[in-house]
Automatic annotation (TrEMBL):
Keywords: Lyase. One of its GO terms (molecular function) is lyase activity. Residues 35-233 form the Alginate lyase domain. InterPro entries: Alginate_lyase_2, ConA-like_dom_sf. This is Polysaccharide lyase family 7 protein.
Length: 237
């Protein structure tokens, strides 16, 4: 019985030994409107969380660091620790849909690429077309076109299921400290600001038949591990 109790304690510490991001008021609004997906998109009771169910919750892939930062950590190709935000919308919205983040990235030993912000099409609606693709991914890439350690906006430029065409826009070299990202979608226009400078302005009217949602966290496109810290995360949907 003693050994069993010790084993349970060790398991508890490994799984829940971190403080909860929900303990900070600044993160409560975004957590109230999101769910946690880890290590895959399907619900895993060890590492996933239902919409708004974050009170006193943390795990090794999602936790509070230094009583300041909401952390997403993951290893393994196509694994993720991400928030999916509940509200869905179309790019032709007349009310601006906004995601703002103050974020710091650690590529650790990520082999090629990881995503930390997304606009993704909803694949669960019965009364809307389904594509199950992201319109936008903001990523770190180890190397692309002889540029190393840069951030990129990867935008799908066609709504055709037969096309995998993407536009890749260089956002600059990864900063060592926190930086600010702001994504705005309104009236079929996508804008991305980096540290208050407009980096992307694209007409995405071809995407207006799809319903979308924001995502934030870390998603590995290849082997290795990566870690993302948010000092601030704000959603207006």
């Amino acid at each position: 019985m003693i050994l069993r109790g010790i084993s349970f304690f060790i398991f508890f510490v490994i799984l829940f030994g971190h403080d909860s991001p929900y303990s900070l008021d600044k993160f409560k609004p975004v957590l109230n409107m999101s769910k946690l997906q880890a290590p895959k998109s399907s619900f895993n009771p060890l590492y996933s969380r239902h919409y708004g169910d974050f009170k006193d919750y943390s795990n090794k892939y999602f936790y509070l660091q230094d009583n300041k930062y909401m952390v997403f950590y993951m290893c393994g190709s196509h694994n993720r620790s991400e928030l999916r935000f509940k509200n869905i919308w179309s790019v032709n919205t007349k009310i601006p849909k906004i995601l703002e983040a103050e974020v710091k990235l650690f590529s650790l030993n990520a082999k090629r690429e990881f995503t930390f912000l997304q606009i993704h099409a909803d694949s669960t609606l019965k009364d809307a077309p389904i594509i199950n693709k992201p319109l936008l991914r903001i990523v770190w890439r180890k190397e692309y076109h002889n540029l190393y350690n840069h951030l990129w906006a990867i935008i799908r430029i066609s709504d055709s299921l037969l096309s995998n065409n993407y536009k890749k826009i260089d956002l600059g070299i990864l900063q060592k400290d926190f930086f600010n990202v702001k994504i705005i979608v309104v009236k079929n226009m996508l804008k991305i600001y980096l540290n208050n400078k407009l980096k992307v302005k694209e007409n995405v009217s071809y995407w207006q038949k799809y319903k979308n949602y924001f995502k934030a966290g870390v998603y590995l496109q290849d082997k290795g591990c990566a870690k993302v810290l948010f000092n601030r995360l704000f959603i207006k949907e």
